[in-house]
Amino acid sequence: MAEYSRLASGQVTSTGGATGVILPFLPNFIEISNSTRAAAASGVTRAWWMTDMGQGAAFLTTTSAGPADGTSYISAATGGGFSTFQGGIALQYGPVLAISGITKASPAVVTTTTNHGLVSGNVVILQGLFQSATTGMPQIAGIPFVITRTGATTFTIPWNTNQSGYTALSGSPSGATVKQVLYPNLYVPGVAFISAISTGTTTTITTTAPSNFQVGQEVAFRIPSTYGTVELNSLPNILTPGSPTYGFVTAVNSSTQFVVNINSTGYTAFATNQTVSQALAGGLTFPQVVAVGDANSGSLLTNFVSPSFYNGTGTSTVSTINGPAIAGAFANNTSMGFIIGASVAGTASDVIYWRAYLHDINYV
Questions:
Q1: Superfamily of the domain at 187-332
Q2: How many other C-beta atoms are found inside a 10 Å radius of the C-beta of residue 120?
């Protein structure tokens, strides 16, 4: 039967860890072939999965120049194989991992007690960083950060902790944890957290994770007084009483930096050098920038092409497969598909060919 079957195939570049593939359906059979590992005669060249095996399982074929070729099996209990996902719940988190330390550095280096399994481009949230009335790093607890992987148990976050208000976190403090935000951008653009502001005739904003703002997007600022640059906050327009003052994105420099058309010359300097006591007194309220308006020159309705966004699965944009939603404000970035686990994904930049199926009938 093929009346309701779904078939898909394609190519993906491995992140060196868990690598996502977005589909318009949830597959019950997946198979991959890694051409890079086959050419090198080293590593997993082929792997496959059926839904009855359980999430995280896989059969895999490994090749080498020696006699170690053969097929093996990863159970669901062991994990690292294939799994499916359906991102429909905002801020759905991955496993919680213990943190052994965070350095006083720019960027700050986070060390986990076990292999974190993260790749560059993933988004994480840190928690439980309070150690005493004056030590720890609660100043950054709860902020979504895009990470750069530096090792099996280390990664950096785009925040300067090499300032007087911060003390290094060490000694694996109880409760200090990190968890991945699996679907950080279900609807984009959302709320972006600010890590730096450069003032001048135009204003450059740097965020802790990809903002997914477009040129022409209308934005508003929510900056607590302890961070400075509160002049950007959407106060009433002095020319039109009762009308808020917003800015428009004029350039996007990178996934985490954009420029707005606000002349901020003479504005108070932005500062992330917050102390533990300031963070606790302020209730851990962070500087934010948000999209506003229903339709403006930043509209995403262009020939109804599904837009691509940074969605926390890597360092490149990914197609939503969905059509745009509200022009200039939000686009539907919900997604489903499968994840090629770290145990079968090979190494970073490997070329993987995949096929996925959803069969009419699946006998258990």
A1: Ubiquitin-activating enzyme E1, FCCH domain (2.40.30.180)
A2: 17
Note the CATH architecture for domain 93-181.
Beta Barrel (2.40)
Report d(CA 222, CA 262) in Å as an integer: 15
Q: Pick from 222, 30, 17: which is nearest to 115 by CA?
A: 17
Residue 295 main-chain phi, psi, to 5 deg: -150, 130
Amino acid making up residue 211: S
Please state the pTM of the whole predicted model.
Answer: 0.79
Contacts of 151 (CB under 8 A, 6+ apart): none
CA distance linking residue 77 with residue 79, whole number of Å = 6
17: Cα within 13 Å, side-chain hemisphere: 17
Domain positions in the chain: 6-86+335-358, 93-181, 187-332
51 near 29, Cβ under 8 Å? Answer: yes
CA angle 285, 177, 15 (to 5 degrees): 100
pLDDT in tens, 15-36: 888 888 988 888 999 999 999 9
- Nearest 5°: the CA angle 206, 208, 212 is 75
Q: Render pLDDT for 109-126 as a digit per residue (tens, 0 to 9).
A: 999 999 998 989 999 999
Q: What distance in Å separates the CA atoms of residue 112 and residue 154, rounded to the nearest whole number?
A: 6
Dihedral sign for Cα 277, 144, 315, 85, please. positive
What's the residue count for the chain? 364
H or E segment and range at residue 73 = strand 70-74
Check for a shared fold between 93-181 and 187-332.
Answer: yes
Report how far apart, in Å, the C-alpha atoms of 208 and of each of 142, 261, 295 are.
Answer: 11, 21, 26
Q: How far is it, in rounded angstroms, from Cα 256 to Cα 262?
A: 18
